[in-house]
Prior knowledge:
- The chain is of the alpha+beta class.
- The chain contains five helices and seven strands; from the N terminus they run ααβαββαββαββ.
- The protein has helices at residues 2-11, 17-46, 58-72, 92-109, 163-173; strands spanning 53-57, 78-82, 87-91, 116-123, 126-131, 176-183, 187-194.
- Strands 2-4-5-7-6 form a five-stranded mixed sheet, with helices on one face. It has a two-stranded antiparallel ribbon with strand order 1-3.
- The longest helix has 30 residues, at 17-46.
- The radius of gyration is 19 Å and the shape is globular.
- The mean pLDDT is 83.
Amino acid sequence: ISSFSTLLKKSSTNLPAKSLKYIDYINTGVTDMSGMIDALLQFSSLGRQKLKQEEINLNTLINRIVLAFEIQVKSRKIHWVIGELPIIKGDYYLIKMVFENLISNAVKFTNNREDATIEINVKGKTLYVKDNGVGFDMKFKEKLFGVFQRLHRNEEFEGYGIGLANIKRILNRHNATIIAESTLNEGATFYISFKE
């Protein structure tokens, strides 16, 4: 679909502006659908992927992830608060995916804040990622970790609504839990507990 609509646009010099706009809509829809299919395939593969247990120094891992985001959003003012994090056992690649998703969400949902604050820390034995972004209404918290469940419109914030579902699935495989707390327009906090 994408190939033929692109060819149609290139080969048609006399198409009205409205028709060209429709072709752009087609290409946008194809791109979105391709992204959703890739996300579903990734979600599906997480259940079959064999876990490689190893010690993970979360201080090192989180600092690498934050550095990558700082480079991407250098035009923004983000205050990072990173506490002393533990060493845990798990699959490095999958745990990295968990924190990349959570930090990516914190960066995304604080986009409208002039002074964004993102905190990654430990409270007791529970890890948390906290932001001062748009937050969400807690009455929808049951939908939060579902596949393709979104609490914000795509025009406000991009995404497919599968990141948190991936996180929950990864953590379930690590015998860990995740819960979220939020106040609308005041930010969100995601708490992760690894069972020993």
